[in-house]
Amino acid sequence: MATPPKKPLRPLDVIARRHVTPNMIRVTLAAEWVKELPAGIEGAHCKIFLPSIDQSKTDFLQQLSEGPRPTVRTYTIRYIRPAVGEMDVDFVDHGDAGPASAWARKCMPGDVCGFAGPGPIKLKTYFADFYVVAADMSALPVAAATLEAMPKDAKGIAFLEVTGAEDRQDVNNPDGVELHWLIHPDPHQPATQSIKLIEALPKFEGSVQTCIAGESGMIKALRTEILSRRGIPKENAYISGYWKIGLVEDEHQEVKRAEAATA
């Protein structure tokens, strides 16, 4: 007998899908239970559970409730509209190589996926004199959501790395936060632009908060820069590796757990 999931996994219906940019797919998902979620949780992470190829909706819903656990990937709530029971989740288009990208490229209104979460938003309060934001394509949703949630008088700088110039998005960042789009055409190669630019920033004055996420190599270097060299308190710095070159998510999560255990 299959072991059911530890926590109930809730279904979501696909109601729309479109390419926001050539390499980013936005899937709009809906359910009555979404109306019970609070507004303002853009940027919170969640788990998206994916049906297998050609799996029927009935079979997938049964699997959600009874197990075994379907393929799962971690994503970010980009927008949520509790009043109408909808949320948007953005997927980087990697072609059909990965299960989440393949599903997002092909899903249609009426299709279904599973959901667990949401987790906490990354910056619960905004109090800094200066903000530092950095992200690659995988973390663009959390970076954009954070920028849009900042006070309108916020000051800071943001470096967002995208595959091509056409992948730049409209982000409603505060006027006082300089937004720089960086082109990194080959995500299979380590990204270094954000690292060099943040290392070159002048000494921070006053309190600082960060929202930095992306490939683990970039994150390791920026964690050293922000926490060790700059001395920003750990509680003020969200810095997280979302993936690692050469590893699928399950392997990357194992690496992160091992590193946390020895930290």
From TrEMBL:
Taxonomic lineage of the native organism: Bacteria, Pseudomonadati, Pseudomonadota, Alphaproteobacteria, Rhodobacterales
Source organism of this protein record: Yoonia phaeophyticola
Record-linked InterPro entries: FAD-bd_FR_type, FNR_nucleotide-bd, Riboflavin_synthase-like_b-brl, SIP_FAD-bd, SIP_fam, SIP_rossman_dom
FAD-binding FR-type domain: residues covered: 7-133
The protein's name in its UniProt record: Siderophore-interacting protein
PROSITE patterns per record: FAD_FR
Family membership: Belongs to the SIP oxidoreductase family.
